């Protein structure tokens, strides 16, 4: 459980679209209190608007690696859409086989399914700062998310990395992922260019995109990421 120790929220959300803000507060946080009765929420947490960051970039561009550093430094909750889907496969759920086949082909799982998994994790969390890593992967994903949540992300990070570097990193990753092989990587790169880059461009046009040069050491890259978040005034929280 978290409790607030200081308040600067008027600064935190000052940039947010007013059209979507109320819808988001209502849809997300009201459901937290009705659908998840086993977790007590304070009045303060219920009223809080989530701060959502989408983390985009091609396969192996370093999204997960940089998310770990953002979590350490800014206390975000990291939700990797790919990881949630892999967990769904491992749990032998009804959708598991379909998800596995989609991932092997480097294709995109239906939006509603991925959004359901993300939403469930957000509902279970006491946090209000979320990194949604590897999502949205297509305009369909993006539109479905914005419709279901009634909100746009606050920040979109895009790790820009050349294909040969991404391929090298993925092939060296050694985590036993079914899609970390050259055939699937080629398919993922094609899907990234065709379907994910339009999402990147959408947020560029909206002025929400932070383009990060994904080449360099992990620390060199993080030096570009850190100022993005230190420019926001998050409420300080302590565990109780
Ligand atoms: N700056 C870097 N330089 C060299 N290797 C890196 C760097 N950042 C991450 N890596 C390594 O590259 C691999 C891919 O990184 P990571 O898993 O963070 O990428 P990702 O964008 O999350 O990929 P995916 O979309 O496939 O999940 C990992 O083995 C990671 O340790
Ligand atoms: O929103 C999403 C995220 C992921 N996928 C599928 O999972 C794999 C692996 O994702 P990573 O982000 O690289 O862990 C991806 O290639 C897609 O097949 C998805 O469908 N939708
Ligand atoms: Mg990843």
Automatic annotation (TrEMBL):
<feature type="binding site">
    <location>
        <begin position="134"/>
        <end position="137"/>
    </location>
    <ligand>
        <name>a ribonucleoside 5'-phosphate</name>
    </ligand>
</feature>
<dbReference type="GO" id="GO:0016776">
    <property type="term" value="F:phosphotransferase activity, phosphate group as acceptor"/>
</dbReference>
<dbReference type="GO" id="GO:0005524">
    <property type="term" value="F:ATP binding"/>
</dbReference>
<keyword id="KW-0808">Transferase</keyword>
<keyword id="KW-0963">Cytoplasm</keyword>
<keyword id="KW-0539">Nucleus</keyword>
<dbReference type="GO" id="GO:0005634">
    <property type="term" value="C:nucleus"/>
</dbReference>
<keyword id="KW-0067">ATP-binding</keyword>
<dbReference type="GO" id="GO:0005737">
    <property type="term" value="C:cytoplasm"/>
</dbReference>
<feature type="binding site">
    <location>
        <begin position="107"/>
        <end position="109"/>
    </location>
    <ligand>
        <name>a ribonucleoside 5'-phosphate</name>
    </ligand>
</feature>
<feature type="binding site">
    <location>
        <position position="141"/>
    </location>
    <ligand>
        <name>CMP</name>
    </ligand>
</feature>
<dbReference type="InterPro" id="IPR033690">
    <property type="entry name" value="Adenylat_kinase_CS"/>
</dbReference>
<dbReference type="InterPro" id="IPR006266">
    <property type="entry name" value="UMP_CMP_kinase"/>
</dbReference>
<feature type="binding site">
    <location>
        <position position="177"/>
    </location>
    <ligand>
        <name>a ribonucleoside 5'-phosphate</name>
    </ligand>
</feature>
<feature type="binding site">
    <location>
        <begin position="60"/>
        <end position="65"/>
    </location>
    <ligand>
        <name>ATP</name>
    </ligand>
</feature>
<keyword id="KW-0665">Pyrimidine biosynthesis</keyword>
<dbReference type="InterPro" id="IPR000850">
    <property type="entry name" value="Adenylat/UMP-CMP_kin"/>
</dbReference>
<feature type="binding site">
    <location>
        <position position="216"/>
    </location>
    <ligand>
        <name>ATP</name>
    </ligand>
</feature>
<keyword id="KW-0418">Kinase</keyword>
<feature type="binding site">
    <location>
        <position position="173"/>
    </location>
    <ligand>
        <name>ATP</name>
    </ligand>
</feature>
<comment type="similarity">
    <text>Belongs to the adenylate kinase family. UMP-CMP kinase subfamily.</text>
</comment>
<dbReference type="GO" id="GO:0006207">
    <property type="term" value="P:'de novo' pyrimidine nucleobase biosynthetic process"/>
</dbReference>
<dbReference type="InterPro" id="IPR027417">
    <property type="entry name" value="P-loop_NTPase"/>
</dbReference>
<feature type="binding site">
    <location>
        <position position="86"/>
    </location>
    <ligand>
        <name>a ribonucleoside 5'-phosphate</name>
    </ligand>
</feature>
<dbReference type="Pfam" id="PF00406">
    <property type="entry name" value="ADK"/>
</dbReference>
<keyword id="KW-0547">Nucleotide-binding</keyword>
<protein>
    <recommendedName>
        <fullName>UMP-CMP kinase</fullName>
        <ecNumber>2.7.4.14</ecNumber>
    </recommendedName>
</protein>
<dbReference type="GO" id="GO:0006221">
    <property type="term" value="P:pyrimidine nucleotide biosynthetic process"/>
</dbReference>
<dbReference type="GO" id="GO:0009123">
    <property type="term" value="P:nucleoside monophosphate metabolic process"/>
</dbReference>
<dbReference type="GO" id="GO:0019205">
    <property type="term" value="F:nucleobase-containing compound kinase activity"/>
</dbReference>
<feature type="binding site">
    <location>
        <position position="188"/>
    </location>
    <ligand>
        <name>a ribonucleoside 5'-phosphate</name>
    </ligand>
</feature>
<comment type="subunit">
    <text>Monomer.</text>
</comment>
<comment type="function">
    <text>Catalyzes the phosphorylation of pyrimidine nucleoside monophosphates at the expense of ATP. Plays an important role in de novo pyrimidine nucleotide biosynthesis. Has preference for UMP and CMP as phosphate acceptors.</text>
</comment>
